[in-house]
Amino acid sequence: MLIIFLFFMINRMTIITENYTGLKTHYFFDNLKKYNFTYDNQKNITYCPNNNKSIQCLTKNYKLHFNSPESVKLVKNKVKTSSLLQKYGIPVPTFVVVNVRKPYPLLMKQLQENKIRIPFVIKPINGTFGIDVQKIDSQNEFFQTLTKFKKKYEDMMVENFFEGSVYRIFVFQGKIIDIIKRDKPYIVGNGYDSVEYLITQRNQNMVNNGFFETKNLSIDYMEKQGYTLQSILPLHHKLFITNVINMHNGALLERINISSVPVKNLDLFIKVGKILKINCYGLDYISRDVTKPFKFGEDVILEVNGTPDTEIHTKIDEYGPLFFEKIVKNIF
Q1: pLDDT (tens digit, 9 = 90+) per residue, 135-182?
Q2: Dihedral, CA atoms, 8, 12, 13, 14, nearest 10 degrees?
Q3: Residue 307's CB: how many other CB atoms inside 10 A?
Q4: 52 in a domain, yes or no?
Q5: Domain range for residue 101?
Q6: Which of 62, 83, 309, 312 is the most exposed place for a label (fewest CB within 10 A)?
Q7: 72-128 pLDDT tens trace
Q8: Cα–Cα distances in Å, from 274 out to 7, 97, 268, 320, 323?
Q9: What are the beta bridge partners of residue 232?
């Protein structure tokens, strides 16, 4: 029974992972059929020019979104990715790897030597979905965070904090397919309901509309704004409820018209893929406004995802078929 249970759980985890990061959607397969591509259970896609199978056909495997295992492994490691991008002049946050179990004074000295100043962000080197990503606003908060994380991690990445919205840029075969803006979840007060109740109502509304609720609440962040879960939020007052800007944590989504983005920015996003030798990726870019030319010291590449979530690009409207059509048309 134990073996059967383990097999079931492993299989379920594989399916969940693929639903989040893979191309397992009817939009994708509908467009494959539309353009006369054939595919099999091993995730191979075949194209025969003019449907003539007597000549050499082309085949690609989409298990890793058409990327090599090496490139996917590379971008999963945030330190290696940022180091390589930094080497080629791509704007990334100043960062350092710290052993969270080292004595606190030595860690503070290490941050100072590497020009990491408060506020900064601490996060896992191989993390996903914004898990355990935390903004640090004081030395005391850093000390408390280290106490919590040293039970779970040994090395973590610390980088300077940048203010702005987080944009997800989906790039495929050197072409920018879609850009989605993600903003921090917030609630608005009505003058009589508690913060906790308003969060519950917001989460329910998000789920009812096909989006994700905010489960990863930032209690400390709310307290920095002057409120607890039991506080009554004043009328029309906006309270940000988390620092984790992620679709799966209830982030607000907005599609950006690619034509409104400067060529300088678009070239930057494509150059990242060339440096990392990756064909399909979701690039996280932080900026106050993606429609303005990027500036060093103000706008940065946060990270690159080698098996990017496609769900975010179909959540807002009926864009799904067009999004996957752009991918399919550029496979070969």
Answers
A1: 888 888 899 889 889 889 999 999 999 989 999 999 999 999 999 999
A2: 110
A3: 22
A4: yes
A5: 94-161
A6: 83
A7: 999 999 999 999 999 999 999 999 999 999 999 999 999 999 999 999 999 988 876
A8: 38, 25, 10, 26, 22
A9: 194
